[in-house]
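Q: Could you fold this chain for me?
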Amino acid sequence: MIKLNEKELSIANEIKRLKDEAGSHSPSIFTLMQKLSQLDIKVDACFLSNPYATDLFLRYFDEELIKTYKLRDFLEFYPSQNRVIAEVVSQAVNVDAKNIFIGNGAIEIIQAVMHRFVYDKIVVCIPTFSSYYEFAKKDTQVIFYQLDKEKDYALDLDDYVGFIKENRPQSIVLINPNNPNGGGL
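A: Sure. Below is the predicted structure, expressed as structure tokens.
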């Protein structure tokens, strides 16, 4: 077990207090940086993003939009429809555009999948993002598979397969890396 010194314990207690105040989600990175300025936070692990792509994005943004003076077009004109974007992406990744789904963030994609492809019965491992069950249609039965806190919310594949065979859902939700522990399958 990790032993915390007095300063670390004080920080841990403050994080717990902020978490309790935040409600159902962890405190935002901005709250943590504001309330715990002594921390040097490099990555927000609660935010679905790739922090390693930031430099690549900024380089592209500068070279392709700022230096070419095309930024104004991107700011003034409504973005292309998802099918148009899928066509451009398909050429870059050599995948048929009909096999590419473009969405405006994870929540939009989760909602679209839940509404278009999920019916009858779905199994959702919990705890997880509430969107997986909140966006289920009214006539869809949501069955929860409880992950064990004492096992750090790791998915026991053998038990899970047995649960799936017993409940026979039309759809299942598997998140990799897993939320909330970040572990892989």
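A (continued): The helical segments are 6-22, 29-35, 54-66, 71-76, 82-93, 106-117, 131-134, 157-167.
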